[in-house]
């Protein structure tokens, strides 16, 4: 027991679940930040209305058209796409029409589902496919699979699959798009260490390639394209539907234990020893959260630095409780919501923001988390440091995430032990200080870095050739370059963390 914490009452599980997503660092800030949205490069377009294809089931919109702004509005408000034309697709044939339209004009073609992951700016020369109207989900309980359309969100899939006693390898929040997440690997904080990356369990991919053809890609139909798509994101085409495995999980022993920032050192040092001992059924992370002083945040947490331990265990609750006991004992928590929970409540574990937020993000991968790593992290982002980072997260990898999948894919760096993820909330005026703070953390942790990055956590500052290469093993990157040359030699799909044709 930590004496310095004695006397501070722990809030109940009900209090934290009742507070909902506001426990997450950025949600409350998002509530006051919408005015900081960054406008794109204006309302210009080189595309004439008369040039637009007919017969599209959804809508084809030029800047200024009603519906255009809604079709391009992103979750991360720091980069609002301003394409010359947006195809608000309602069917795979609409995606084909958009890609053919772009290819015919040598224009870049991009794809937007939720706008959680900005990369390069999308301007008037671009054709953008918005997949938001394509939210279909079909569950096959016998085969334990889901088939989803391009715009489906994790919330859609979790709701549908739980009706059959099954869960997917979803991410920390239900508002992220299934396809973008899965093509970048798909690191599930609930059952990822038990089953591996979401990309490891994809069975088939419907893809519109740069020639405008719609094809189903499987391990049998095109081994190399199936390899590259799972990890290579939108570099090889636009996915219109995805089929993947589900798992027999309906409850978790999970939640968050939130400690006062003053106890961050105790927690992190105990955590680094603890992770070496836990089974694959235990997924976890620790985040240093700087919470705003706002009414949406539980009173005890307002304006504070806290250390949030996130737990998700898929075994028996009593075994989970025994596993978590040593971490519960490091100090008196301010909030302890870890208990048996329905799988559907998974977003409460991380408490991520659910409303659009202007944010800058940085990432990295760590080989290990030793005593000196923790001390270094605390020295730059711990108590007493006034840094503009709403969240600094260390997420445990290993387990099935470290094992090769049945059908090899481009997801790399399986030997990394932890992801490092940072987010600062604010518009362009805040960018310099957020970027500097995040760069300082990256610099201080460099001795323990693998030098790599996890594709899904890369953002606007990670679009250089060098950054994109660092997301893949060198041999994997060479395969992806060669694949790109075969399927997209003109680099039509370049509005992303781009792999160039070699
Ligand atoms: C709050 C938050 C929590 C997150 N939690 C996790 C997590 O737990 N684990 C994890 O792994 N990641 C997580 N992420 C990262 C997330 O997986 C990526 O941001 C992902 O790319 C989001 O996909 P999207 O479609 O929602 O976003 P978008 O910004 O719409 O798309 C991002 C990119 O995905 C690709 N893409 C999207 N749709 C298609 C398509 N139909 N065809 C081809 N490519 C496509 C494109 O390259 C596109 O540029 C999180 C992100 C946020 C902001």
Throw out a few tags for this protein.
502 residues; alpha+beta; Vanillyl-alcohol Oxidase, Chain A, domain 3; Uridine Diphospho-n-acetylenolpyruvylglucosamine Reductase, domain 3; 2 domains; 8-stranded antiparallel beta sheet; 15 helices; disordered N terminus; binds flavin-adenine dinucleotide
Written overview of the protein:
This protein is α+β, with helices and mostly antiparallel strands and 502 residues long. The radius of gyration is 22 Å and the shape is globular. 26% of the residues lie in helices and 20% in strands. The chain has two domains: 1-134 and 250-465, Vanillyl-alcohol Oxidase, Chain A, domain 3 (3-Layer(aba) Sandwich), CATH 3.40.462.20; 137-248 and 466-487, Uridine Diphospho-n-acetylenolpyruvylglucosamine Reductase, domain 3 (2-Layer Sandwich). The model is unreliable at 1-41 (pLDDT under 50). The longest helix is centred in the C-terminal third of the chain and has 14 residues, at 431-444. Bound molecules: flavin-adenine dinucleotide. Flavin-adenine dinucleotide binds next to strand 3, helix 6 and strand 9. Residues 1-30 form the signal peptide. This is UDP-N-acetylenolpyruvoylglucosamine reductase.
């Amino acid at each position: 027991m930590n004496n310095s914490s004695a006397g501070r009452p722990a809030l109940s599980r009900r209090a934290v679940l009742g507070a909902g997503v506001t426990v997450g660092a950025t949600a409350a800030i998002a509530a006051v930040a919408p005015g900081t949205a960054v406008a794109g490069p204006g309302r210009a377009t080189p595309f004439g209305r008369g040039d637009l294809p007919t017969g599209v089931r959804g809508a084809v919109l030029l800047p200024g058209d009603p519906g255009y702004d809604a079709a391009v509005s992103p979750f991360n408000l720091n980069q609002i796409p301003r394409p010359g034309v947006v195809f608000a697709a309602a069917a795979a044939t609409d995606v084909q029409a958009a890609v053919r339209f772009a290819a015919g004009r040598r224009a870049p073609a991009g794809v937007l589902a939720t706008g959680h992951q900005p990369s390069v700016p999308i301007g008037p020369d671009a054709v953008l496919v918005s997949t938001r109207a394509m939210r279909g989900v079909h569950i096959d309980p016998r085969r334990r699979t889901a088939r989803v359309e391009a715009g489906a969100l994790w919330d859609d899939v979790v709701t549908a699959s739980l009706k059959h006693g099954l869960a997917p390898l979803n991410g920390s929040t239900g508002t992220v798009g299934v396809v973008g997440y899965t093509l970048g690997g798909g690191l599930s904080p609930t059952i990822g260490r038990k089953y591996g990356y979401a990309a490891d369990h994809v069975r088939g991919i419907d893809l519109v390639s740069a020639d405008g053809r719609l094809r189903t890609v499987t391990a049998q139909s095109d081994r190399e394209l199936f390899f590259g798509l799972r990890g290579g994101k939108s570099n090889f085409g636009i996915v219109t539907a995805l089929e993947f495995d589900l798992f027999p999980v309906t409850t978790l022993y999970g939640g968050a234990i939130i400690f006062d920032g003053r106890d961050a050192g105790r927690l992190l040092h105990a955590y680094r020893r603890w992770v070496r001992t836990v089974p694959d059924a235990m997924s976890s992370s620790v985040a240093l959260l700087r919470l705003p002083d706002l009414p949406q945040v539980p009173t005890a947490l307002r304006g504070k630095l806290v250390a949030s331990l996130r737990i998700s265990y898929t075994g028996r609750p009593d075994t989970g409780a025994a596993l978590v006991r040593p971490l519960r004992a490091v100090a008196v928590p301010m909030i302890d919501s870890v208990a048996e929970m329905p799988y559907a409540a998974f977003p409460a574990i991380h408490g991520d923001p659910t409303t659009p937020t202007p944010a800058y993000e940085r990432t990295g991968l760590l080989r290990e988390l030793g005593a000196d790593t923790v001390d270094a992290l605390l020295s730059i982002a711990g108590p007493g440091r006034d840094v503009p980072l709403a969240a600094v997260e260390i997420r445990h990898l290993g387990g099935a995430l470290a094992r090769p999948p049945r059908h090899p894919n481009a997801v790399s760096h399986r030997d990394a032990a932890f992801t490092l993820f940072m987010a600062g909330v604010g518009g362009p005026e805040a960018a310099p200080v957020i970027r500097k703070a995040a760069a300082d953390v990256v610099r201080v942790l460099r001795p323990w870095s693998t030098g790599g990055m996890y594709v899904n956590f890369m953002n606007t500052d990670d679009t250089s050739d060098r950054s994109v290469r660092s997301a893949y093993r060198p041999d994997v990157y060479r395969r992806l370059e060669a694949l790109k040359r075969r399927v997209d030699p003109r680099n039509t799909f370049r509005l992303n963390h781009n792999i160039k044709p070699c």
